[in-house]
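debug: dumping io for the single-chain case to check the tokenizer round-trip. Nothing else runs in this session.
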Amino acid sequence: MLEEKLRAYEKKERVPLINPAKYKIDFPFPKEVDCFVLIAVRNEIENAFRNHFKNSEKFKLPKFRKKKDKQSYTIYNVRKLLRVDFERSLLFLPKIEEGVKIELHRRFEGNIKSVTIIRAKDGRYYASILVETQNSRNKVVKPKSKLCWICLGLERFATVTNDFGSYEVERPKYLLKAKERLRRLQRSLSRKQKGSKNSEKARLRLARLATVAKFCLQVYIYSINS
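debug: decoded output
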């Protein structure tokens, strides 16, 4: 789909709206997934081109992903086939009747609207579930103070001052350690021969540590905001 659109764009022709079902005639693999997966991909490409035409400086032309990058696909729950068995920790997806064993982050209530399956750079899989619920957990709280002053220091990570006083934020030692480990793994990967088994092992170690470091950073930012 992306190739057809880019070809029309380069020829300065009208970029076509493509029906993904037509590829099932020439290629067998689109038949292996749910039809709404192909529709979700089509919608992503359409939005990418629409954003580019509206603001070409901010949104560049969509391009092909690399195989080693993060990969994902989205499934719409149109036919109510997406469900989670909390007791057995199973996620049921279209064309996978036996379900997929998962580690649940937390229970949720509401109707599943869509599920995005993500394959991270470290080879692990994650599922992001979009749920429609009547009783929202996250309530918007208006800030009591609209201004704050942040001073980065040497002994402390930062000192934050607002209308209600000031408090100090300690340095995240685990992030500093992770940063040093990332530097060592990056140096190790650069010394490996590209395409070799050792290079792939080093890349996976680096990707896994980067995933953990990103999670630690999110937890740290959440703790500061709390």
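debug: round-trip ok. The helical segments are 2-10, 35-54, 173-191, 197-225.
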